[in-house]
Amino acid sequence: MKDKLEQPKNKLQKLISKINIIMLIVGILGAVISLFYISTDVFFRYLFNRPVHGTIEMCSMFLAISAVCCFTPSLTENKHIKTNLFLDRFPFRLRNFLEGIFDIIGASIVGFATVCVFIDSLHTYEYGDLTDVLLVPIAPFKFTFTICLGIFAILLFFKGLQNLNKSEEIDK
Questions:
Q1: pTM of the model as a whole
Q2: With 0-12 CB in 10 A as exposed, 13-18 as middle and 19+ as buried, what is 114?
Q3: Strand, helix or coil at 157?
Q4: pLDDT 10s digits, 43-82
Q5: What's the Cα-to-Cα distance from 33 to each of 5, 41, 60, 169, rounded to whole Å?
Q6: CA–CA separation, 106 vs 86, rounded Å?
Q7: Domain map of the chain by residue range?
Q8: Of 5, 108, 122, 159, which is least surrounded by CB within 10 A?
Q9: CB 171 within 8 Å of CB 94
Q10: What phi and psi, each to the nearest 5 degrees, are found at residue 137?
Q11: What is the DSSP letter of 137?
Q12: Contact by Cβ (8 Å): 73, 24
């Protein structure tokens, strides 16, 4: 019976690890593109007195996607910074139960934000909004951000279920 329960858990963990790798690659690419864009802007500004146009708007879009993509693997691998000054005083079961509940509440909030960003992305696509300086369409960036935020919400939900499961395992 235990093997049958372990099999889906292992498949889910493999899927989550693959998603983590993809998210980390996308996050690092976003940060590297922003770094290259800013470095090129500084180089052209001081060497040729001609700055690269649209540095702030492009980097803000790339870094927003990069932040969500890089935070997702750190969350699922327990490498994120969290303050447990209050929760460390509770027993193990209660601490995991509360962390699970808070993760599920956080997942619902992020899920709601995902829906709102998706609706905004649809409006952006419908109206054909462009950036101010470069006149680049904003919709692809918003849709990418929506997908990354949705993946983050799903993984946060699974993390909450995992913490709730830990709180029940002590009794067995």
A1: 0.80
A2: buried
A3: helix
A4: 999 999 888 888 888 898 999 999 988 888 888 777 766 6
A5: 42, 12, 11, 44
A6: 18
A7: 2-80+87-169
A8: 5
A9: no
A10: -60, 135
A11: B
A12: yes
